[in-house]
Write a structure and sequence with these properties.
Strand order of the largest sheet: 1-4-3-2
CATH architecture of the largest domain: Roll
CATH superfamily of the largest domain: 2,3-Dihydroxybiphenyl 1,2-Dioxygenase, domain 1
Number of helices: 3
Structural class: alpha/beta
Helix content: 10-25%
Length: 122
């Protein structure tokens, strides 16, 4: 059985992305390698995203999905802290949730199991 536990995300400024994911989404810094322009950011379930600075990052088509306990509460809490959302929780083609973009334009989608079942598109 496989367990997906790391992802490398090409970014235009690794420090800016590191700070954004820590300050906005509450991820923690696992480690960083300044000489490689890379930071390892971990969620509370030990999934790690490596933000790695590259000369030509291409965000088209990539979206990150984060499951939260309650998407409505998470949206209100993050919005109150100044996080700008593309849209609040609502029915979307992938179910039900909120969407924002990181500093490089990668889509970040938040969802929870309860509202996905109750309000998600079928």
């Amino acid at each position: 059985m496989l367990k997906f536990d790391h992802l490398t995300l090409p970014v235009s400024d690794w420090r800016r992305s590191r700070d954004w994911y820590i300050e906005r989404l509450g991820m923690k810094l696992e480690f960083e390698l300044a000489e490689r322009r890379t930071a390892a950011l971990q969620d509370e379930h030990d999934f790690t995203i490596f933000v790695q600075q590259m000369d030509d990052p291409r965000p088209a088509g990539l979206a990150l999905y984060f499951q939260v306990q309650d998407v409505e509460v998470a949206h209100r809490s993050l919005a109150a802290r100044g996080v700008r959302f593309t849209h609040a929780p609502q029915p979307v083609f992938w179910g039900y949730g909120a969407e924002l973009a990181d500093p490089d334009g990668y889509l970040v989608r938040l969802w929870d199991e309860r509202t996905m079942k109750q309000k998600g598109s079928s």
